[in-house]
Design the sequence.
C-alpha cells in the first residue's frame, strides 16, 4: 500500500482490494453481496419451512380421513418419503449456499486472482 506523501495528499493511495476501490469500498461491496446471498438463502429456507409444515398438516388430515390401517400406513409412508426427499434437497441447498458465500469471500480476498496452487 502506498503511503501519503509529506504534503498529506492521498493521490498516491493504491487500493488493496479491487481495481480502483479502497479497502473500505471493497468491504462494503462484499458485505452488500453477502447480505444479498443471506437474504436469498433465508427466503429459500423460510419457503422450505412452510412447505414442511404444509406436508405434516396434510398428513394429519389424511390420517384422520383414512378408513383403514393400510390406508393410514400408505399416507404415513408417502409423507415420510416426501420428507426424506425434502431433507436431501435441504442438504444440496445448504451446500450450494455455503459454496456461494465462500466463493464471494474468496474472490474478495484474492482480488479475483486464481487461488489454485501450481
Sequence:
Amino acid at each position: 500500500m502506498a503511503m501519503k506523501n509529506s504534503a498529506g495528499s492521498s493521490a498516491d493511495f493504491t487500493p488493496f482490494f479491487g481495481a480502483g476501490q479502497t479497502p473500505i469500498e471493497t468491504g462494503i461491496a462484499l458485505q452488500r453481496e453477502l447480505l444479498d446471498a443471506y437474504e436469498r438463502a433465508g427466503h429459500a429456507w423460510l419457503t422450505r419451512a412452510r412447505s414442511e409444515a404444509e406436508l405434516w398438516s396434510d398428513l394429519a388430515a389424511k390420517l384422520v380421513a383414512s378408513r383403514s390401517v393400510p390406508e393410514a400406513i400408505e399416507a404415513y409412508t408417502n409423507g415420510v418419503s416426501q420428507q426424506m426427499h425434502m431433507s436431501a434437497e435441504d442438504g444440496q441447498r445448504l451446500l450450494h449456499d455455503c459454496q456461494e458465500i465462500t466463493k464471494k469471500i474468496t474472490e474478495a480476498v484474492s482480488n479475483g486472482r486464481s487461488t489454485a496452487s501450481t
Residues 33 and 39 are 10 Å apart (CA to CA).
